[in-house]
Amino acid sequence: MEKQFVFAGFGGQGILTTGLIIAHIGAMQDKEVTWIPSYGAEMRGGTANCTVKISDELIGSPFVKKIDILVAMNQPSIDKFLPQMKDDGIILVNSSIVKDVPRKGDIRVVEIPATEVCEKISYSRGTNICIIGALAACTDLFGKECYEEGIKHYFAKKPQFHESNLAAFQAGYDYVAKE
After folding, report:
1. How far apart are CA 9 and CA 19, in angstroms?
2. Helix-helix angle 144-154:162-177, to 10 degrees
3. CA 26 to CA 87: how far, in whole Å?
4. pTM of the model as a whole
5. Are 23 and 33 in contact (CB under 8 A)?
6. What gap in Å lies between CA 88 and CA 72, rounded to an integer?
7. Highest mean pLDDT among 40-44, 99-103, 109-113, 159-163
8. Residue 91: other Cβ atoms inside 10 A
9. Helix residue spans in the chain (DSSP H)
10. How far apart are CA 51 and CA 36, in angstroms?
11. Other Cβ atoms closer than 10 A to 45
């Protein structure tokens, strides 16, 4: 098994953190993992993306050629990365921001209004964690508990955020699981 991910959006949306969390979860499951960040010179508001590869075997190249799973937090990310999607891939979008997802082949599009979902739980900073919950609900890559442990592990030095992050994860998971 090898999965190739791209996480993309504006700086400040937690894109790099999202990719790191998924990479950490893969590593915690004894998988081979790569994570490569890419971002503009601006700290917030510029473009940001990262690639993650998770595999049972050694990874020959860290570069993603064909995307299995795209997490797009803004419209420019869809426009930029859609051509690289595998025909049977999955696109997760924050439909609070992304309004137009062109359909291509057999790509599954999972739309979650992550901004609104997080506003309902009073944790507006958790949209990226909400998207991880949606990812967990629509794939069988890892069990739900693995994601929760990965989130806790990533934020181990900030335990004050455990409850809020796990609530955002659960909200995203529940939103997609009920569909």
Report:
1. 12
2. 150
3. 24
4. 0.92
5. yes
6. 17
7. 109-113
8. 24
9. 15-28, 75-81, 114-120, 127-138, 144-154, 162-177
10. 5
11. 11
Residues 6+ apart with CB under 8 A from 46: 10, 11, 39, 40
pLDDT bin (cut points 50, 70, 90) of residue 162 is confident
57, 2 in Cβ contact below 8 A?
Answer: yes
Least Cα distance to 112 among 179, 42, 60, 158 occurs for 179
Pick the CATH number of 2-177 from 1.20.1200.10, 3.40.920.10, 3.40.710.10, 3.30.470.10: 3.40.920.10
The DSSP secondary-structure symbol of 6 reads E
At 66-125, the pLDDT tens digits run 999 999 999 999 999 999 999 999 999 999 999 888 888 899 999 999 999 999 999 999
